[in-house]
Structure formats: structure tokens, C-alpha cells
């Protein structure tokens, strides 16, 4: 078998590249999402102390994973633009499966017996205080079943809503106003995603009240929408780069084909 048989068309190369970046960012977002950070304090501001739905002293405390989810939103829209709903559907199902696989492998890893020398070498922290690195490792990487189920479910539902909304807006605008279908699909899909993950993980399978789900979900939703608007220029930048690489005719043909799938 010669090398020529392994060659890929530009269309296939583009999908592999976009899918790879999409997969990488989605899985990383899930893995780092266990840490909760304060956006205000990180930026050097005092906590906002927001009051919503009967809850006081709410701040912009969010999962670290939310920082790179906007990249996933952008890539989802770019994939939809050039490969249609079928392209988004394939990569979404694959991503959900790989996220589940990652959780299983990591969970298994936390149950392995640690080596004695590893515990001894890391027996103290930078300040000389006693430190149990195996406990820290397990605490960081073990996520509750509710969070895993909620996260994967919300991701899949959000992606399905996003791809259909994007397609609807593309047909409605006759392929014009890329910013509208990109931002509009994110606004609609993340309205569901932001609340669904909290509802499943912390209300249905947890001990949160519905008011708390609504309050925290609204804060995260507003952040995602704000980032989607701010990052809209990246959609146009990606569009220009891809069109330049594929060539105008091939790019237009791919987009037209995508609108039918």
C-alpha cells in the first residue's frame, strides 16, 4: 500500500482539525471543572454580593472549566457552518463518549494503591506541613456521579439545541448574518445547558433548592452569553482563514452542502 492511499482531502483535514480541537477543549473543560474560582477576586475586585431568587451574597464563583467552554461553542458553530448538523452530531456524540470514558479511567486510577516512595517524597507541602498527596489526587479527580451525569447530559442536549438553532437561523437569514446564527444559537443552547447541569447534578441528584439552581445558573448563563458576544469576531476570523485555505469555490460548496445536512 503506497503513501498516496493515506492522503486526505482538504475537507477531511479541516474536519479532523476542528474535531480534534473541539474534543481536546471539551475534555479539558470537564477535567479542570472541579475547581471553583472567584472571577472578581481574580481580577482584583471585591465580591459583587448579588441577590437573586431569595439568595444573598452570590458572587461570580464559577467552575474553571467555564473559561474554555466558549472555545467549544465557537468550534461547534464553525463545524456547523462547514459540515452541517450531521457533522456537529457526530462530534458531539463522540465527545460525550470520550468524556464518559475519561471519567471511568480517572476513577479507576484513584482506586489504585499508591507507591510508598511517592507518598514519602510528597509527604510535606512547600511550607513543610504534612500533606497526603493521594488524598489530594483522589479528591481533585473524583467527581460525584450526579455531576458526571448532569454534565454529559447537559452537553449533549445543549449541542443538539445549538445545531438546530444554528441551522434554523441560517435558513431564516439565507446564509447572511453569521454573527446572528453563531451568537443566537449559543444564547438559546446555553440557556438550557447552564440550568440543566445544575438541575440534574445538584437538585435532582443533590440537595440544592430550585431557587439556588436558578440563581447560580443565571450567573453562569450571563457569563457564557457575554463571552459569546465578545468572541464573535473569532468566528469571522476562523471563517476567513478556512475560506482562504480551501479556496472560495470549495468553501462555498462545502457551506451549501452543510446547509442541507
Secondary-structure map:
Layout: H1 10-32, E1 36-38, H2 39-42, E2 50-52, E3 55-58, E4 61-63, H3 69-110, H4 116-121, H5 133-141, H6 145-173, H7 178-204, H8 210-230, H9 232-246, H10 248-258
Antiparallel strand pairs: 1-4, 2-3
Structural write-up:
With 261 residues, this protein is mainly α. The radius of gyration is 21 Å and the shape is globular. The two termini are 33 Å apart. Helix 9 (232-246) crosses helix 10 (248-258). A hairpin with a 2-residue loop joins strand 2 and strand 3. A two-stranded antiparallel sheet has the order 1-4. It has a two-stranded antiparallel ribbon with strand order 2-3. It has a single domain (10-112, 144-258), classed as Arp2/3 complex 21 kDa subunit ARPC3, CATH 1.10.1760. It has helices spanning 10-32, 39-42, 69-110, 116-121, 133-141, 145-173, 178-204, 210-230, 232-246, 248-258; strands at 36-38, 50-52, 55-58, 61-63.
Please summarize what this structure is:
The chain is mainly alpha-helical. The chain contains ten helices and four strands; from the N terminus they run αβαβββαααααααα.
Keywords:
about 260 residues; mainly alpha; Arp2/3 complex 21 kDa subunit ARPC3; two-stranded antiparallel ribbon; globular
Amino acid at each position: 500500500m503506497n503513501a498516496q492511499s493515506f492522503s486526505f482531502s482538504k475537507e477531511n483535514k479541516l474536519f479532523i482539525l476542528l474535531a480534534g480541537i473541539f474534543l481536546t477543549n471539551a475534555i479539558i473543560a470537564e477535567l479542570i471543572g472541579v475547581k471553583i474560582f472567584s472571577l472578581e477576586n481574580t481580577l482584583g475586585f471585591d465580591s459583587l454580593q448579588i441577590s437573586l431568587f431569595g439568595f444573598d451574597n452570590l458572587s461570580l464563583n464559577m467552575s474553571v472549566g467555564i473559561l474554555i467552554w466558549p472555545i467549544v461553542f465557537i468550534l461547534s458553530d464553525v463545524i456547523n457552518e462547514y459540515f452541517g448538523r450531521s457533522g456537529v452530531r457526530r462530534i458531539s456524540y463522540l465527545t460525550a463518549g470520550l468524556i464518559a470514558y475519561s471519567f471511568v479511567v480517572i476513577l479507576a486510577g484513584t482506586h489504585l494503591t499508591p507507591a510508598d516512595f511517592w507518598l514519602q517524597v510528597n509527604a510535606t507541602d512547600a511550607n513543610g506541613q504534612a500533606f497526603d498527596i493521594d488524598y489530594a489526587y483522589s479528591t481533585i479527580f473524583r467527581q460525584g456521579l450526579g455531576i458526571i451525569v448532569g454534565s454529559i447530559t447537559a452537553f449533549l442536549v445543549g449541542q443538539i439545541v445549538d445545531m438546530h438553532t444554528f441551522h434554523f437561523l441560517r435558513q431564516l437569514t439565507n446564509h447572511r448574518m453569521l454573527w446572528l446564527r453563531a451568537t443566537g444559537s449559543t444564547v438559546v443552547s446555553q440557556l438550557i445547558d447552564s440550568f440543566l447541569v445544575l438541575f440534574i447534578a445538584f437538585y435532582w441528584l443533590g440537595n440544592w433548592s430550585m431557587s439556588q439552581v436558578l440563581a447560580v445558573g443565571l450567573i453562569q448563563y450571563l457569563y457564557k452569553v457575554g463571552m459569546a458576544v465578545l468572541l464573535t469576531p473569532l468566528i469571522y476570523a476562523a471563517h476567513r482563514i478556512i475560506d482562504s485555505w480551501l479556496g472560495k469555490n470549495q468553501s462555498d460548496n462545502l457551506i451549501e452542502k452543510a446547509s442541507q445536512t
